[in-house]
Amino acid sequence: MDYQLAWQNFYQEINRADEDIDLAKASLYYAQAEYPSLNIEEYLNKLNTIAEEIKARLPQRKYPLKVINTINNYLFDDLKFKGNQQDYYNPTNSFLNEVIDRRTGIPISLSVLYLEIAKRIDFPMVGIGMPGHFLIRPEFEEVGIFVDVFNQGEILFQQDCAERLQQLYPKPIELEPRFLAAVSNRQILARMLTNLKYIYLNQRQFSKVLATIDGILMLFPDNPNELRDRGLLYYELDQWDKACLDLEYYLAMLPNAEDADMIRLLLAKIR
């Protein structure tokens, strides 16, 4: 698979109504840019097989807690999926094919796996972009339960989410309603790519940082922070014209940003 074609396929998949985006396909398309021989259909079939096995185990009365327990038992007890506590910042944790093969991942990638399986057994679930830790929940009004896929599908209530938030941050932070709001498919994919962006940045793999930023901008073309970051990266790579375009666009969108003066100085230096 050609690198550019993989990203073109990603763009085609996300260039539709949000509810029609196939999270599994989109995740596998961007993974294909990293793994050119990746067979998309093979991994979609693996998800289908897992879903069929779970469907055969479902009780007759599909109460949410019973369905979640059935999924959890198969994924975490039988198949031994788990959160990668030891090597959290390994980039492989952000590629769905690797998560399926290695049966390990981080909250967001394991949640995508879980969401796609739930979709296949007609049990709709949504992602919850809580700060610092991604959760999911059944897509039913007032259901009041959340699932922490990273921690073996642990079932949480709102008070548990508040306590989890306190554990994640050194300073007291109040659980706001927006922290438990459902996020879109585009937001889920952007969060996955953002994780990769910072991993690659720490590893100084700048070409891969650029690719992930381009992917995020396919999802959200007018994201000013991503345009700024791409412009700064172009500057570091001595790609002056591209740097100017992105940084000028950033200032046009946010002329009073906290770093606006610094960006203006940088643009003057480039010119």
UniProtKB/TrEMBL annotation:
SUPFAM superfamilies noted in UniProt: TPR-like
Taxonomy, superkingdom: Bacteria
UniProt xrefs under InterPro entries: SirB1_N (IPR032698), TPR-like_helical_dom_sf (IPR011990)
Pfam family, one: TPR_9
Residues covered by the Protein SirB1 N-terminal domain: 42-193
Family according to the record: Belongs to the UPF0162 family.
Protein name: Protein SirB1 N-terminal domain-containing protein
